[in-house]
Write a structure and sequence with these properties.
- With 398 residues, the chain is α+β, with helices and mostly antiparallel strands.
- The protein contains 10 helices and 21 strands.
- The two termini are 44 Å apart.
- It comes from Physcomitrium patens (Spreading-leaved earth moss).
- This is M23ase beta-sheet core domain-containing protein.
- It holds the Pfam family Peptidase_M23.
- GO terms for molecular function: metalloendopeptidase activity.
Length: 398
């Protein structure tokens, strides 16, 4: 309760040029604790006010320096000197506290503030990941501002942030680099219909305006190729177990971000088939299909590396029914981002194991539906296979 009293006394000491500009004597704090309740009763009822000490200014600044608050200190001149009755003390104290609040209103203004929202792209091409970044800084009203000013306390109140893309709420998580920046990831694929999508961001703290915008998903043409499978492999459709386990894995959304920075190449081989490629299988066009990853041509037995830090959530074997994927390893990178490495000859990891970017997790093979030795790397965001290329570039949203 004595914070406001000590706050006012501080400006008084600044005006008088005392040596206590950055501290308070015991009797000041003691008196403040004794009679600060009245001012805090007033200030606590005005907690909706924004407060920023840098706006109020410090001694020597052009706005609101020590002398600007001189009359507040003078209001306590008699009480601090042992003069004046209790009624006068409380009256002067309450008046000074009200003045602090009014000056905060004057310098900062009232009303809700606009949200700081940034997108990786407002016009993403089909297949790109849309990253939505929202910056939420600590709330600072009059009471909290004074506490921070005097005791270096920086309250971190929780504010629920909701992001809606095309009318659907999407998960939001703090970034590993800065927990005051929240990120939501929206996948698009070659099958996404181009056109506008609504974006809305809400913060349930009563202090921010709702943000509304429009994302325009752009058309992108992907190449077409023809491949021929043997009679044996062309009959493979995948087992129910395989589809369920791989589907559950790619839909994983874990709260902690495990990856750190841009992803790296998982193989030294050349790209033989890019992301998004459409195909004719044995002369028949595959409708509603796109190549859900990148193929790297390499020799059987060549190393396969983890493209980013992750947790091994899936280790599948062709002999156990993984007819399409063959021997495979699935990595959870956090926040709904997963990698699956397919057609391996062998794997060197176990489920539950943590791996680092660049760590060798297996070798190239041609298990599952494959026409020759190669690595298939599929990168997924909340179950949708997206273009890995942007994830390998240095970008703020990664």
């Amino acid at each position: 309760m004595g914070i406001t009293f000590a706050f006012c006394a501080r400006f008084r000491s600044e005006e008088l040029g005392t040596s206590q500009n950055h501290g308070f004597s015991g009797h000041v704090l003691e008196r403040g604790l004794g009679c600060g309740g009245m001012s805090f009763e007033y200030a606590s009822r005005r907690r909706s006010l924004s407060y920023g000490l840098q706006r109020l200014g410090k001694k020597g600044s052009p706005v609101g320096g020590g002398p600007a608050f001189a009359h507040i200190g003078k209001a306590f001149g008699n009480p601090l000197d042992g003069k004046g009755g209790p009624a006068e003390v409380f009256e002067n104290f309450a008046n000074a506290a009200q003045d602090v609040v009014k000056r905060a209103e004057h310098f900062l203004g009232l009303g809700k503030r606009p949200l700081d929202v940034e997108l990786s792209s407002w016009t993403p091409a089909k297949g790109e990941t849309i990253a939505v970044l929202v910056s939420i800084r600590p709330r600072r009203d009059v009471v909290e501002g004074i506490a921070r000013f005097l005791f270096r306390k920086d309250p971190q109140p929780e504010a629920k942030v909701q992001i809606f893309y095309d009318g659907c709420e999407i998960p939001v998580f703090p970034t590993a680099a800065d927990d005051k920046i929240l990120r939501a990831l929206v996948p698009t694929t070659p099958l996404t219909t181009p056109g506008p999508r609504t974006l809305k961001v809400e913060v349930a703290d009563g202090r921010h305006e709702t943000f509304e915008g429009c994302v325009e998903v752009m058309e992108k043409e992907y190449p077409v190729e023809s491949i021929w499978l043997s009679k044996t492999k062309s009959k493979l459709r995948g087992t129910t177990m395989e589809k369920e386990k791989v589907g559950a894995f790619t839909a994983t959304v874990s709260e902690n971000q495990i990856w750190n920075g841009p992803f790296i190449l998982p193989s030294d081989g050349e790209i033989t088939t890019g992301y998004g490629m459409q195909r004719f299988y044995n002369g028949v066009f595959a409708n509603h299909y796109y190549h859900r990853g990148v193929d790297y041509g390499a020799w059987e037995g060549d190393p396969v590396k983890a493209p980013a830090n992750g947790r091994v959530l899936l280790v599948g074997k062709e002999s156990d029914g993984y007819e399409i994927h063959g021997n495979c390893v699935g990595l959870d990178h956090g926040h709904g981002v997963t990698s699956i490495m397919m057609h391996l000859n062998s794997s060197f990891v176990k489920e539950g194991e943590m791996v680092n970017a660049g760590q060798i997790i297996g070798t190239v093979g041609e298990t599952g539906i494959a026409t020759g030795p190669h690595l298939h790397w599929g990168l997924h965001v909340r179950g949708e296979a997206i273009d890995p290329h942007p994830w390998m570039q240095a970008q703020r949203w990664i």
